[in-house]
Amino acid sequence: MAIRNPQAPSAVVMVRPHHFCPNPQTQADNSFQSPLPQNSETLHALAYRQASDVAAKLTDCGIQVHIFEDETRDTPDSVFPNNWFSTHSGGHVAIYPMYALNRRTEKRADVIDMLKRCYRVQDVVDYSGLEADDIFLEGTGAMVLDHIDRVAYAVQSNRTNPLALERFCSHFNYEPMLFEAFDNNAKAVYHTNVLMCIGTDFVMIGLDMIDNQKRRDEIIQRFVESGREVITLSHQQIARFCGNAIELQGKNGRILALSSTAYAALEPEQRLILEKSVTLLPLEVSVIESAGGSVRCMLAGIHLSAR
């Protein structure tokens, strides 16, 4: 029987892009995004290969990967499915309101159908109707969830509306922890999952980006009380996606899936702390990172019981 861990899922959903490119509709508020040619066949092929390699390496570690193809040119960010849906213990699924118009069409019935077919799904709560009121909450990009202590950490931004956060937390039994965070240019961090990663025994977080000292101390206190070791990431490490990692349960123990970019930016002492509880799995996704997200954004964790 597969080991169950509330924080570290043993199965994920991926979407493999055939026509990947950085999304022009998200450039304005995503400072992690790089301007690249929008219609480069080489770019498309490299992104396809990188997504395929991630799926293969996760599978080798014993992670169940459900991979879906995106052959359209209309959804440039489809490689980041964790933004439009999430799954939760007890058989619950959420579908989220998306900020960019072209991201709203990433939502796929075949993914939800697969979840219902392969896992025990009791209900699907769809918040998409909030898009008509310009209220957005982009899934586990907007929120980093502590599945053990039931806290939803969220940076307020265009992609994270406090009303939607409160509604999600009420439905799914999380306590909201909303705060502001800014990069070196005083620009709001667009997604919480580039700022922080919560594992079973550790947290990686860019504390210096949280200006409000009182709120920062409250967040640190929460993690200390949970028994987790807090690893502080610098602005430069956040920019290299060190916070955009995800803990998964493999066949031989827990792994931390992160990009090769992030792995190279970690200090040796930080790696040693992490390796006390996880095996580090660097994954080459440099082309996909040009869209402003990294490994964690590519993996929608499945926290459901298999049928």
Automatic annotation (TrEMBL):
Any Pfam family: DDAH_eukar
Keyword Transferase annotated: yes
Keyword Zinc: no
UniProt cross-references to SUPFAM superfamilies, sorted A to Z: Pentein
GO molecular function, one term: transferase activity
InterPro entries attached to this UniProt entry: Amdntrnsf_FN0238
Keywords assigned by UniProt, alphabetized: Transferase
Gene3D superfamilies hit by this protein: L-arginine/glycine Amidinotransferase, Chain A
PANTHER family: AMIDINOTRANSFERASE
The protein, known as: Amidinotransferase
Species assigned in the record: Paraglaciecola hydrolytica
